[in-house]
Structures are given as structure tokens and as C-alpha cells.
């Protein structure tokens, strides 16, 4: 049984040139890339994507950051893809993320943590629809 998850290589990851590393790690794990695009988000799309964080004190900063340069959005597919990618990404706080994970190897600050991965089947469905409406 296959599942899909939305992955973002955030603007810090693109700037630092780790797009290839992120794709390589998820492919090595056995996940397949089924859609992918380099794009700069509008504030509207960013606010939609992060709607659940709207009341957080860091929301403005989060939207500024995620719209601050091009990012790579992709859909990864495979058995338990959501959980599998979150394990590859490591903890949200990169200092707590285990070495060997994407964040553990590439990031130091919670606001600039290189990647995003959907956290549940419901958010995956919502986020995939937002980024790749044509996937259905
Ligand atoms: P992400 O998985 O993209 O989902 C929400 C994001 O909010 C999270 O990754 C972090 O990058 C960001 N975030 C969480 N906590 C903070 C914080 N205290 N300050 C700034 N950004 C944060």
C-alpha cells in the first residue's frame, strides 16, 4: 500500500545546495519522486500551507523565510511515505535531530531547518492539493 507525502526543500536548503542530497536520500530509502517543481511561494500560498501555525508568535517570520527565495516542492511516494520521510528529516529542532538525518547533518536553527515533510495523511492530502492540484 503506497502513500504520498509533500516534501519541501526550503529556501535555505536550495541556497546551500542540498537539493540533490535530499532527493538522493529519499530515493536511496526507496521512495519515488512523482512530482517536483522549483518555485518561489507567494505570501498567500505560504499562509495557506502554514495555516495551522497562524497564531504562533513566529508565523510572520516563518512566512518571510519560506517566501524569501526559491524552494523545491516535491511529492514522494512509497509505503508509509509520510513517516519514512519524517525519519529521514529528523527532529524539527536541528540541534536535537540525530546526526545522519537531513536536519541533523545540515541545519542548526529551528526556523531554517532545510526541509518540510507532511505530518499526517490529512495534511499530506491538503498540502499536495495546494502545491500540485493537477495530481488529484
Ligand atoms: P515545518 O515542518 O516546515 O513546519 C512548521 C515550521 O515552523 C517548522 O518546520 C519550523 O521550521 C518552524 N518553526 C517551528 N518553531 C519555530 C520557532 N520557534 N521559530 C521559528 N520557526 C519555527
UniProtKB/TrEMBL annotation:
Q: Which residues form the Nucleoside diphosphate kinase-like domain?
A: 2-136
Q: Which GO terms describe its biological process?
A: CTP biosynthetic process; GTP biosynthetic process; UTP biosynthetic process
Gene3D superfamilies membership: Nucleoside diphosphate kinase-like domain (3.30.70.141)
Task: Give EC number(s), comma-separated.
Answer: 2.7.4.6
Name of the top EC class for this enzyme: transferase
Q: Where in the cell is it found?
A: Cytoplasm
State the Pfam families in the record.
NDK
Q: Which GO terms describe its molecular function?
A: ATP binding; metal ion binding; nucleoside diphosphate kinase activity
| Required co-factors | Mg(2+)
Q: Which reaction does it catalyse?
A: a ribonucleoside 5'-diphosphate + ATP = a ribonucleoside 5'-triphosphate + ADP; a 2'-deoxyribonucleoside 5'-diphosphate + ATP = a 2'-deoxyribonucleoside 5'-triphosphate + ADP
In its keyword annotation, does this UniProt entry include RNA-binding? no
Which residues catalyse the reaction? 116 (pros-phosphohistidine intermediate)
Q: Where are the transmembrane segments?
A: none
What the entry lists under HAMAP family is as follows: NDP_kinase (MF_00451)
* Job of this protein: Major role in the synthesis of nucleoside triphosphates other than ATP. The ATP gamma phosphate is transferred to the NDP beta phosphate via a ping-pong mechanism, using a phosphorylated active-site intermediate.
Assembly, in brief, is:
Homotetramer.
Family label: Belongs to the NDK family.
Q: What PANTHER family does the record point to?
A: NUCLEOSIDE DIPHOSPHATE KINASE
In Swiss-Prot or TrEMBL terms, this protein is called Nucleoside diphosphate kinase
Source species, please? Actinomadura craniellae
